[in-house]
Write a structure and sequence with these properties.
Blueprint (H helix, E strand, L loop, with lengths): L22 H19 L3 E2 L5 E3 H8 L4 H6 L2 E3 L5 E4 L4 H10 L8 E10 L11 E10 L4 H17 L7 E6 L3 H16 L7 H6 L16 H4 L11 H17 L4 E2 L11 E8 L8 E7 L3 H4 L7 E7 H10 L10 E5 L5 H13 L4 E4 L4 H9 L5 E8 L2 E8 L4 H11 L4
Parallel strand pairs: 1-5, 7-8, 12-13, 12-14
Antiparallel strand pairs: 2-4, 3-4, 5-6, 6-11, 7-9, 9-10, 10-11, 14-15
Helix pairs in contact: 1-5, 1-11, 5-9
Length: 420
Amino acid sequence: MSTEKTSIQTPQAIRGTQDIFGPDAEAFAFVVETFERVRKLYRFRRVEMPVFEKTAVFSRSLGETTDVVSKEMYSFEDRGGESLTLRPEFTAGIARAFITDGWQQYAPLKVATHGPLFRYERPQKGRYRQFHQIDAEVIGAAEPQADVELLVMADQLLKELGIADGVTLQLNTLGDGASRDAWRAALIEYFRAVKGDLSEDSQDRLERNPLRILDSKDPRDKPFTANAPKIDDYLSDEAKDFFAKVTGGLDAAGVAWTRAPALVRGLDYYRHTAFEFVTDRLGAQGTVLGGGRYDGLMEALGGSPTPAVGWAAGIERLAMLVQEAGNALPDTLDVVVALEDDAALNFGIQANTAIRAAGLSSEMISTGSPRKRFDKASKIGAKVLVGISIRDGQTHLNIRSTSNAEERLKVDDIFANLKR
């Protein structure tokens, strides 16, 4: 029998994933907690969605030829031979649930969720292959007021996260179906005349997705996109009125916005409002929250015509902005209990339990040399420090605080009611 030891190399995280700890985790939690609080103010119902769906849910909703479907989705066959996909976004799964789970009875339905998503793409600052998003959707509401409410909600969220400074809401309209079709035909005719001078990606998009050429970052496309036909020249009166009501609602709510004519959504089921909140503090990835109205998606998935609008935002990106602004809540401790005599252990446990039941965070120092526990506890920086010792058979308290804060009053009241 060989006595040679096998060397086991410590495994590393998968490329494009991350372990979140310390200040990063606190900023992440701050984003989620703020989102949960704000969505309750707007009466958005919480939903939980499956991490994987049938591949067709995403291929039909995102388009077979889009980069997400053709290059970025994590798809696999299960043991029954069915093709499944880890969700690359939330909207398609929520739309599928609306159709299959009888959610139509609750329309107009306001829902919100958050969790991990998966895309195989080049990792960069603020972008990972496993990433997390917050998401809000209004389904079954055709009125522009739904768009306004979602945008006001997003604006309030960014303000309450403390990152609204330097973030701009860019807004555009894609018109109704007839407006969009007329604009699309004009774009195809315009770009066909210069096809040979376009980038390879834009040449590929020309016939199947010409709107995407407008937001091309390739410098070869810039001279042509600047003079391309504008949606405003093809808007129906109804589409103009819809957009006017959206912008009017934002003005009434005090939400600043700027028109972005090149802001588009390539898939045919998008209608009317398209928007992004952008910043210059994340390098090339400047969008911190984005969305739009997707009135044609339910039909694309086999459901009845149903208007809908929604947005999503990357939690990692929001957390980065929160940390840069210094707005993440510090991991403060309300009370630290120093157990200076092991004979008082049960009383210390009783006190610690009562402190937490009163809504205060608490830690108990009960290991190591009893003589050094009080000094160790004093270095932690809690708002209230409680030393517990035994003198002449009696439990003795030494309570100190940094100020006559609310926490000190609560602690005094707690110990006044405990039996020693």
